[in-house]
Amino acid sequence: MATRITNIEEYKAAYKTSLETPEQFWDEIAGEFVWKKKYDKVLEWNFLEPDVKWFINGKLNITENCLDRHLATKGNQNAIIWEPNETGHQARTITYKELHEQVCIFANALKKLGAKKGDRICIYMPMVPELAIAVLACARIGAIHNVVFGGFSYKSLADRIQDADCTIVITADGAYRGAKDIPLKAVVDEALETCPSIEKVIVLKRTNIEYNTVQGRDILWEDAIKDCSSDCAAEVMDSEDMLFILYTSGSTGKPKGVVHTTGGYMVYADYSFRNVFQYDDGEIYWCTADVGWITGHTYLIYGPLLAGATTLMFEGIPTYPDAGRFWNIIDKHKVNIFYTAPTAIRSLEAMGLDFVKPYKLDSLRVLGSVGEPINKEAWEWYHLNIGKEKCPIVDTWWQTETGGILISPLAGITKTKPSFATLPLPGIRPVLVDEAGKILEGNNVEGRLCIEFPWPSMIRTTYGNHERCRQNYFDTFKNLYFTGDGCKRDEDGYYRITGRVDDVIKVSGHLLGTAEIENAINEHPDIVESAVVGFPHDIKGWGIYAFVICENERKDEHNLKLEILATVSKYMGSIAKPDKIQIVKGLPKTRSGKIMRRILRKIAENDLANLGDTSTLLDPAVVEDIKAGAIH
Ligand code: WT7
Predict the structure, then answer these.
(1) Superfamily the domain 508-628 falls into
(2) Alpha-carbon distances of 101 from 68, 75, 114, 126, 303, rounded to whole Å
(3) Atom of ligand 1 nearest to the CA of 374
(4) How far is the centre of ligand 1, averaged over its atoms, from the C-alpha of 114 (Å)?
(5) Distance CA 308, CA 266 (A)
(6) pTM for the complete prediction?
(7) Which CATH architecture fits 8-317+396-487?
(8) How close is the Cα of 157 to the center of ligand 1, in Å?
(9) What is the per-residue pLDDT across 165-196, written as a single tens digit (0 to 9) for each?
């Protein structure tokens, strides 16, 4: 396709054009899609309200571009290859023709249950093909999907359903994840006790675990699709109609519902997928992310399907039945492009090369990394032992809010440097600013990463609360989108993300708000107050360190800690469980009552020599106390 860059000179030329004439640049790319009605104008924007619109008055349906458009040329090509949790079970393949049919059937089932354009539908499912079918069926009828990661607790699920005011939940009886058997439907039932907006629950049978059925509300997937036709006209969507909501953590309050719209998201998902991974027709592409995260949305479902690729979906986990599972799957399905997270790489590296050696891995052509900074050691291990020094690594930087990859090498085109996300994609204008918001010109600078010009797949609002979107991303630095990340630009103009500068922690690549974890801990009846900070962790990138104040002195500290872990699992999910819990008498607070996290971070990092000035604290003595009991 015309808009796939094939060498570094073309990259430079495309980048230059995208700066000089952004509207023409994106107009040419958008022209490759099926529009029911062409847009009148490419872009209108301001970062003050903010108000960003792409492909104005264009009418389309993203599923026609993911599915119908490929039927003539790729109808019998696999769209999805599905690898189940158990090695002994059969993999499934679904061609574009079959996927189109199944999406249409399920879309008709949703309609029959009363779903219509604009409704919000919550999807809480295991990693099975029906998850992709559910997502696409929502898009087919113009319903807004709200996928919630299957590892979140009933409370997190309920929060997300309530905030988006969903009317339907699509779920499964249970989920297999490694040796675990997770009762999803039971979690849904518990969540729905506080979600009166839900009218219907569609349940896919996966593990055959028993569950309760609520008459009139719950319906089996197989019953829902009975007699539904495989003809379903795609709903006409405006470019700026909402496609989905996806919740992400912030430094304060509850998670926010990041809103992505139809036209711009589609254009950028496809463009970034084809260019970053340099996907060639016929290749097998595998992204290991769960669809519950943005990576699964953009680079497991939408991007690859828009590009007519074969996308592999894996139900299980990297260490089941053993730490060779990823490599086994790569050989089994002859995967050409493999996209995973640094945490997975580090944990598999720690298990030793014996799990890698049995596999050839000779189908691999491109490797990817996403979600957190990849340290040099992990990068090199990945390059040597998995890529056999012949596969370029694309270290892709982006966010739930950006919708797609913004800074990354283009595979085999951009010269890579370990731990650098390298250069922005065409159309992306990163700037680094100091704390006062002054733009740092030139190279060899370090500051806060912002983007100064809109791109098609950027966040439009936070669901139900536009002001929160403005404050969070557009208020810190005037006329800039602020990412929350620190970043360096080196002598070659390459970008290196140094990590978050706000109160969120990246734990195994998952973004968690410290305030959210504290709220969960505080649900324990004996805990009066808590403060959570991150500390560097060899495998997870960052670990969670919780300082807690207990109301009544508890003799059984060990049990108290176990109860706190259980409380966090219940209110958030097990990914948010603290690695370390220290019971303290007080927290370091300023006279105005603000917790000085800087000090707690230093203690958690065991950097006691650099605590900084503690004289402004209300009670400097608490610091000595905390230091004495610190866990290292
Ligand atoms: C945050 C966004 C990107 C989709 C999945 C995560 C961190 C992401 C990288 C990278 C260094 C990275 C940033 C970013 N991050 N990719 N290649 N190098 N850091 O989406 O959960 O919204 O998290 O992940 O801190 O702000 P997310």
Answers:
(1) ANL, C-terminal domain (3.30.300.30)
(2) 10, 11, 20, 21, 20
(3) 18
(4) 37
(5) 13
(6) 0.96
(7) 3-Layer(aba) Sandwich (3.40)
(8) 22
(9) 999 999 999 999 999 999 999 999 999 999 99
